[in-house]
Write a structure and sequence with these properties.
The complex is a heterodimer of chains A (113) and B (114). Helices cover 0% and strands 50% of the residues of chain A. Chain A is mostly beta strands. Chain B is 0% helix and 51% strand. The termini of chain B are far apart. The interface between A and B is medium-sized, with 23 and 25 residues.
Chain lengths: 113, 114
Amino acid sequence: GNSVTQMEGPVTLSEEAFLTINCTYTATGYPSLFWYVQYPGEGLQLLLKATKADDKGSNKGFEATYRKETTSFHLEKGSVQVSDSAVYFCALIMNTGFQKLVFGTGTRLLVSP
Amino acid sequence: NAGVTQTPKFQVLKTGQSMTLQCAQDMNHNSMYWYRQDPGMGLRLIYYSASEGTTDKGEVPNGYNVSRLNKREFSLRLESAAPSQTSVYFCASSESTVTNYGYTFGSGTRLTVV
């Protein structure tokens, strides 16, 4: 079946450090890919998405590029802030017929001042 | 504000008690979902409703029932709560035919079964 694998956390960084959270996927076909963010005590919010190979999703300084050849969608940010501390979920959905969103297990990011 | 509204936000139940989690969306979405979130396991799909009048099982349906009351509302019922159902529950909705827009999530219900 389709699945998403994320790096285990927590990822601990100092403010202004560079962030990478790895995400790879397994799918029969070509899915759309998403990053969701969950701040403490809140629900999931869509952070960015990409719907086809080589697309780059971006939002709030975060970026991720859909790499078909490596089946990856790694999340990056050049300079993290304390307010970026949250849990980040990578997810996929197939683009044919009615499909359901498949999530990775999430990666907790902790940013210290 | 437009979005997905879940009630209650917190609940403590005794083993064997029943309760219904409520979810409503005002975005005219066709599809709705119930997920549970557990540490180290991410989000797992309990039930979903592709459109009004239909419901289907997800990955972990045992111990739960759902009702798609109308296009806006999708409830999740625990008939006889067990400690294993202690979790955070999220409702979500989406356009059924434009799946690459992703889902909109509610803020969650934190349920503890003692």
